[in-house]
Amino acid sequence: MILNTRLLLFALLFTGLVKAQEQERQPNQYSEDPETVFLNFELYYPVSLGNSAYADYNFDPGYAIDFNWFFRPEFTLGARLAVHRGFPQDISETGNITRGTFHLLGADLGYYVPLQNDWNLHYKAGIGITSNVYQAKEDKFSEDGGKAWLSAEVAKRLDRTFGLFLKAGLDYDFNTIETSAEKNNYFNRNFLFTVGAGIRINFQNPGG
User: Fold this and answer.
1) pLDDT for residue 94
2) Are 113 and 24 in contact (CB under 8 A)?
3) Beta strands in the chain (DSSP E)
4) Which domain holds residue 129?
5) Does residue 28 sit within a domain?
6) pLDDT tens digits for 136-159?
7) Global pTM value
8) Which residue of 52, 112, 205, 208 has the lowest C-beta tally within 10 Å?
9) Is residue 126 part of a domain?
10) Quick check: is 183 in a domain?
11) What domain count does the chain have?
12) What is the pLDDT of residue 171?
């Protein structure tokens, strides 16, 4: 409960920062030499929302790599690879599982907003495939599924190449675990709130 309250406060502060920066939108100091692509290297922390199997997990921080390509000055196409692990706390609900490892490979569409000086915003919507690998005491198995997500990043450019960013997002996992009709939503419909931070590497297009 305390953790969820802290994350809610973080989300409110994040939203306030985003709005404040957007209101001060001005040409970016790097706009004369725009990016063609940039990479995000991210650490993130997922928290389950609602009553689902994920609510019975304690999640470790995960890591992700995002590739983003500007196909228009304000729009990006990207790919995301992410992995995090979780440990069930109530095996009476989840089965005799000791650990779950959650993999994502997906694609997204982004809207990029340069702000005052070296600040920028990046909104993204994505969809991908998931592979969840579960470890039991005497067994190991996997289940496939999908994920859709919405996210917002606020980033600060340190120079032409490097930057730092903060991120908040909402994930919807739709799994394919075979179970009873009564338990289908519990195991196969999961929402996660995620917060993350990381390093951005920008690749410039000399001469525009």
Assistant:
1) 63
2) no
3) 35-49, 57-59, 62-72, 75-88, 97-114, 119-136, 140-157, 162-175, 189-204
4) 40-204
5) no
6) 877 888 889 999 999 999 999 999
7) 0.80
8) 208
9) yes
10) yes
11) 1
12) 97
